[in-house]
């Protein structure tokens, strides 16, 4: 952790909704005039798209059906930890960008599914903002979570997570339901080993719980709407959280535990704004005092 160069990490599984949380933070950064250095978790995959496909085919041929982007074998955990450590110490570090599609790749003259060259972050940012799969990972070799000043878990109940992933991958990436299902099954060992444990290290978890039937996510035709959900917000430490204020501002919300507030799903963006803005104020105030 660093007072001068704080790090905010939003972490969650594929299809969890971390991108929506990033958009909320971008709105807060813009409103509060906070300059962030944005880092995408995909940039720290070990292999590009073609290399991963070849590695998967090779692993399956050898009888290994567990290789996935969730695990250590397919990611540069040491490099990600080095970035967090270096940023906390100096306000800079080595990064690159993963080019998801043709639009992102065209300016670099590269193919989709590849990486840009490594480069140093530009100096002058107020904080580092990470969004991806591994913002709070800890293994016997690395402790990425220890460098993060504000770690946020995005954790919809698993059937909803699968519905969101199935819908996105079918509609945006053209995958079949069978292909997405195979990916979910293949990732499950790494999901249990690397993804789930992070949510015991986060400072805040946002968990969306649908109030409609999601018993069989593999036949769902639509993602349950925000209005068809409740949002469970769990704080690792209740000290310093103004729960009476949140309850007064979030109509229909209630406390389910001393550190947990339940909010109507349609108020998710407002709940995040009200929750994270004071936390960012505190980080910026500490930074100002230390500079």
Characterise the protein shown here:
The protein is 38% helix and 18% strand. It has an eight-stranded mixed β-sheet, sandwiched between helices. A two-stranded antiparallel sheet has the order 3-6. The protein has eight helices and twelve strands. A hairpin with a 2-residue loop joins β11 and β12 (260-264). The protein has one domain (7-284): Rossmann fold (3-Layer(aba) Sandwich), CATH 3.40.50.300. It has 291 residues and is of the alpha/beta class. The model has no long low-confidence stretch (mean pLDDT 93). It has helices at 18-32, 49-61, 77-90, 102-105, 158-173, 177-195, 243-249, 268-290; strands spanning 7-11, 36-40, 94-95, 98-99, 114-115, 119-120, 127-132, 150-154, 204-210, 229-235, 254-257, 260-264.
What is the topological layout?
Blueprint (H helix, E strand, L loop, with lengths): L6 E5 L6 H15 L3 E5 L8 H13 L15 H14 L3 E2 L2 E2 L2 H4 L8 E2 L3 E2 L6 E6 L17 E5 L3 H16 L3 H19 L8 E7 L18 E7 L7 H7 L4 E4 L2 E5 L3 H23 L1
């Amino acid at each position: 952790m660093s007072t001068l160069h704080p790090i905010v990490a939003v972490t969650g599984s594929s299809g969890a909704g971390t991108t929506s949380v990033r958009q909320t933070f971008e709105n807060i950064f813009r409103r509060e005039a906070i300059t962030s250095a944005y880092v995408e978790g995909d940039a720290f995959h070990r292999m590009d798209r073609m290399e991963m496909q070849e590695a998967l085919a090779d692993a399956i041929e050898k009888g290994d059906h567990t290789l996935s982007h969730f695990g250590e074998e397919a990611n540069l955990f040491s490099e990600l930890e080095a970035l967090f450590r270096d940023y906390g110490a100096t306000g800079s570090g080595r990064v690159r960008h993963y080019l998801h599609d043709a639009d992102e790749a065209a300016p670099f003259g590269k193919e989709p599914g590849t990486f840009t060259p490594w480069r140093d972050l530009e100096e002058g940012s107020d904080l580092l903002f990470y969004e991806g799969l591994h913002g709070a990972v800890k293994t016997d070799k690395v402790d990425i979570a220890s460098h993060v000043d504000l770690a946020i878990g995005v954790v919809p109940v698993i059937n909803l997570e699968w519905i969101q992933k199935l819908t996105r991958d079918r509609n945006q990436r053209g995958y079949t339901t069978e292909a997405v299902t195979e990916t979910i099954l293949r990732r499950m060992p790494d999901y249990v080993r690397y993804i789930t444990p992070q949510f015991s290290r986060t400072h805040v978890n946002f968990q969306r719980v649908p109030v409609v039937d999601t018993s069989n996510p593999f036949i769902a035709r639509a993602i349950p709407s925000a209005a068809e959900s409740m949002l469970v917000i769990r704080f690792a430490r209740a000290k310093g959280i103004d729960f009476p204020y949140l309850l007064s501002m979030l109509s229909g919300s209630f406390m389910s535990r001393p550190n947990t507030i339940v909010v109507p799903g349609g108020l998710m963006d407002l709940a995040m704004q009200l929750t994270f803005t004071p936390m960012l104020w505190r980080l910026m105030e500490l930074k100002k005092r230390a500079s």
